[in-house]
Amino acid sequence: MRPFSYTNAKNKEQALQTFTKTSHYLGGGTNLVDLMKEDVERPDQLIEVANLEYKNITKNNEGGYTLGGMLSNSETANHPDIRKNYPLLSMAMLSAATAQIRNMATNAGNLLQRTRCPYFFETSMPCNKREPGSGCGAKDGMNALHAIFGYSDKCIATHPSDMCVALAAMNAKVEVQKTDGSSRTIDFTDFHRLPGNQPEKDNTLEPGELITVIHLDEPKFSDHYYYLKIRERSSYAFALVSVAAGLQIKRGVITKAGLAMGGVAHKPWKFTKVEKYLEGKKPNKVNFKAAAEMAMQDAKPFEGNKYKVEMGKKAIVRALTQAFEREA
Amino acid sequence: MDEMEKWKNGSDTDQLSKDEEKIFDEIGLNGTSRRKFLKQMSAASLSIWASSYLTSDLLASPARTLPDNPEILLNEVRVNLRVNDMVKQLALDSRTSLLDALRERLQLTGTKKGCDHGQCGACTVMVDGKRKLSCLTLAATCEDKEITTIEGLAENGNLHPMQEAFLKHDGFQCGYCTPGQICSSVALLEEAKNGEASYVTEDFKDVKTDLKLSEEEIRERMSGNICRCGAYNNIVQAFKEVHSGDDEMPTWEFATAKQMEKAKNS
Ligand SMILES: Cc1cc2nc3c(=O)[nH]c(=O)nc-3n(C[C@H](O)[C@H](O)[C@H](O)COP(=O)(O)OP(=O)(O)OC[C@H]3O[C@@H](n4cnc5c(N)ncnc54)[C@H](O)[C@@H]3O)c2cc1C
Ligand code: SF4
Ligand code: FES
Ligand code: FES
């Protein structure tokens, strides 16, 4: 690991003012410290923000709740208000990593975790995300774990977070503080970006912007929810494909649907068109199958990840079915 | 006495070598707790167990003569590390992980380094009561936090019930993952009391405390501790005994339900 200076920020102002272009904020360190050991990330300063005051869960004006960016993943997933109102989020978060890692990981850090593309981790291999212009090792290489939607010539990596797939299905908003002291709020669908010509950029944050809180809408999927995670072993592994499904059902008809997929694109892949399609329909196998076909029709897999298309369809049907059949 | 006679007379556990005696004295296992501990161990595992203390003792002793704080450090940070009721001020290179600080600077070598990348759980310790990975924790971030390692679990010479249960049920083979497994298990006892959910919990909305964890729940919640020797069944059994007083044999996935039933009743 390369040398860096360490600053334990006492407050938000200190964190923002100490930031330089070559600094990194430090949350739980579960991704950043790992990548520094691999020599993939090379900050010359770490500014610890995990102790800043954004560690609460409060009610907001939208009829929903606001999550502190520095609260741990496990405290968030197990908070009684979150389990009661947003069980889809709890379930997705608890499917990720392990108890130890969830105790360390912060909500802000989770949003900013980097891809698990093996080429990205291995500095002897080409990777445009790690070293712009060096080429993409995965495109013509080993690409079983890679994207089937929204990729570019430059990068075909996927976003690895489970929490983010649920947030995409639920319409969250991310609030950030800029270094000049102002703040802005970003719709979750605009938070992460597609690789395009700049795969080194995972999201739309400006340098130095600090994530403080995540706002959630009024809860809609507290009765019918399911997070299905398909992986190579039954626990402690990233998703090959995952589906966050939330349904609001009134008098036997779907009035609101939330549907997003993980492991298939550079950002959590939200099926906005399919959500609209499901609204007004009856929750049954025929409609769920039609939804799955519609969702996967634009998929363009590579040599190694053709399996994701069929797996994705089945996963959507299963997640929607489990969400529907859950006892309200 | 040859090996066979020793075994027949059952006298081997009374006859400790000088080195073994010394280890028991050093770790403060005396009188009844020593006898209780010995009864749970076979002679063979005793010498293996003791040899691990011998080697770490030998390796650690020259390190003890190192100065507490090196004279020159790059990006020096000063941290008060509170580990197992002891407080030590260390001057560290900012890059030092908690794991390396424990092992290399405090000679607490019970915590193990497996992968050093968050992928195995061997380095699990408790920080303010929560299980965490010491390999991905920078020591600089631990100022004034309460750190508990495997060395801090025994009290007044009595092993923690979880340590006893791991011995009783052979919750290990080589033992390398064991400190992490035990720290993780001890933290999990609390998580179950607090009613924390896991991915396999049926209903996330219904929040209850004092959970009695099923085998499936235990396996999911302990999945952050990988055992290369595959001692999982015995680990589950040890955990169950302390968690719920039930140490029924865990399900062996290669047997049918009927075969399992028969094995449990035999
Ligand atoms: C072995 C292993 C298995 C895992 N499995 C899964 C899994 O199955 N599913 C899953 O979803 N995740 C998984 N993870 C990833 C884990 O969830 C993330 O590493 C974690 O959420 C990151 O949070 P953190 O607080 O530790 O972030 P850090 O590592 O501290 O930071 C990550 C990034 O965010 C930046 N940052 C941190 N806080 C802020 C802030 N407030 N504002 C702006 N920038 C900030 C940092 O500078 C850094 O670039 C796994 C990790 C490991 C090591
Ligand atoms: S897919 Fe992206 S992250 Fe992976 S090698 Fe190609 S450029 Fe790098
Ligand atoms: S050594 Fe820390 S998880 Fe493997
Ligand atoms: S006992 Fe050998 S790794 Fe677990």
Walk me through the topology.
The complex is a heterodimer of chains A (328) and B (266).
Chain A: E1 5-8, H1 12-18, E2 23-26, H2 32-37, E3 45-48, E4 57-59, E5 65-68, H3 73-77, H4 80-85, H5 87-94, H6 99-104, H7 107-112, H8 118-121, H9 163-170, E6 172-177, E7 183-187, H10 188-191, E8 210-216, E9 224-230, E10 241-250, E11 253-262, E12 269-270, H11 272-278, H12 285-296, H13 307-325
Parallel strand pairs in A: 1-3, 2-3
Antiparallel strand pairs in A: 4-5, 5-8, 6-7, 6-8, 9-10, 10-11, 11-12
Helix pairs in contact in A: 5-9, 11-12, 12-13
Chain B: H1 3-9, H2 18-26, H3 31-39, H4 43-64, E1 76-83, E2 86-93, H5 98-105, E3 124-127, E4 130-133, E5 146-148, H6 161-168, H7 178-193, H8 215-221, H9 232-244, H10 257-265
Helix pairs in contact in B: 6-9
The complex binds flavin-adenine dinucleotide (FAD), iron/sulfur cluster (SF4) and FE2/S2 (inorganic) cluster (FES) (2 copies).
Structural features, described:
The complex is a heterodimer of chains A (328) and B (266). Chain A is of the alpha+beta class. Among the domains of chain A are: 5-48; 224-325, CO dehydrogenase flavoprotein, C-terminal domain (Enolase-like, domain 1). Chain A has helices at 12-18, 32-37, 73-77, 80-85, 87-94, 99-104, 107-112, 118-121, 163-170, 188-191, 272-278, 285-296, 307-325; strands spanning 5-8, 23-26, 45-48, 57-59, 65-68, 172-177, 183-187, 210-216, 224-230, 241-250, 253-262, 269-270. Chain A has a 5-stranded antiparallel β-sheet. In chain A, strands 9-10-11-12 form a 4-stranded antiparallel β-sheet. In chain A, strand 2 (23-26), helix 2 (32-37) and strand 3 form a beta-alpha-beta unit. In chain A, helix 5 (87-94) packs antiparallel against helix 9, helix 11 (272-278) packs antiparallel against helix 12 and helix 12 (285-296) runs antiparallel to helix 13 (307-325). The longest helix of chain A is centred in the last third of the chain and has 19 residues, at 307-325. The radius of gyration of chain A is 19 Å and the shape is globular. By secondary structure, chain B is α+β, with helices and mostly antiparallel strands. Chain B folds into 3 domains: 2-54, no CATH class; 76-152, Ubiquitin-like (UB roll), CATH 3.10.20; 161-244, Orthogonal Bundle (DNA polymerase, domain 1). Chain B has helices spanning 3-9, 18-26, 31-39, 43-64, 98-105, 161-168, 178-193, 215-221, 232-244, 257-265, and strands spanning 76-83, 86-93, 124-127, 130-133, 146-148. In chain B, strands 2-1-5-3-4 form a 5-stranded mixed β-sheet, with helices on both faces. In chain B, helix 6 (161-168) crosses helix 9. The chains are: A alpha+beta (328), B alpha+beta (266). The interface between A and B is large, with 40 and 41 residues. The complex binds flavin-adenine dinucleotide, iron/sulfur cluster (SF4) and FE2/S2 (inorganic) cluster (FES) (2 copies). The site of iron/sulfur cluster has 15 residues of chain A, from helix 8.
